[in-house]
Design a protein that fits this description.
The chain has helices spanning about 20-25, 80-85, 125-130, 140-150; strands at about 5-10, 10-15, 15-20, 40-45, 50-55, 60-65, 70-75, 90-95, 100, 105-110, 115-125, 135. The protein is α+β, with helices and mostly antiparallel strands. It has a single domain, classed as Sandwich (Jelly Rolls), CATH 2.60.120. It has a five-stranded antiparallel β-sheet with strand order 1-9-6-11-4. A hairpin with a 2-residue loop joins strand 2 and strand 3 (about 15-20). The relative contact order is 0.28.
């Protein structure tokens, strides 16, 4: 079974600001035929906003926080026990850039950790192709406490 993976990005900072490049990283990751056909931006206006669960039968999804911060979770489209054992959780932000690649057969969801968080999404399917590829599951209160609750440490 394919598993989600994170591609961290080096950020170069000097007195003018910072630069990092996502395209160089995309060309070096995933299956040999991973080709981005569509990009879009999700903009969550408020901290704590959760959007989950969305997956694909065949397409890959890359999630890249370009403004703010988000806790991103991927779980297999399978039984609850398998979801708890196989989940992948990461926190990404505009200060800690990276792309979480979610393979076919996995749901993804995210919670904004800051107001006005924006996530750039990369998809290997066009808008027409994705219409027959979407898999969705309703978010429950149990999901919120299992996957998205921020624990004090």
């Amino acid at each position: 079974m394919l598993k989600p993976f994170l591609v961290p990005m080096d950020r170069y900072v000097d007195d003018r600001g910072s630069v990092y490049c996502a395209v160089d990283h995309m060309s070096k990751v995933g299956p040999p035929r991973l080709q981005v056909k569509r990009t879009y931006v999700i903009h969550n206006w408020e901290k704590g906003r959760i959007r989950a669960w969305h997956g694909h039968k065949e397409g890959w999804t890359g999630l890249h926080v370009i403004q703010g911060a988000a806790k991103i979770v991927a779980i297999p489209i399978a039984s609850e026990g398998e979801q708890m054992c196989s989940r992948k959780k990461v926190v990404l932000s505009d200060k800690n850039p990276g792309i979480l690649w979610v393979p076919p057969g996995w749901y993804n969801g995210h919670m904004s950790l800051e107001d006005n968080t924006k996530i750039l999404v990369y998809s290997t399917h066009t808008f027409e192709e994705v219409k027959n590829d979407d898999v969705r599951q309703q978010l429950t209160d149990a999901d919120v406490s299992h996957y998205f609750e921020v624990q004090n440490r």
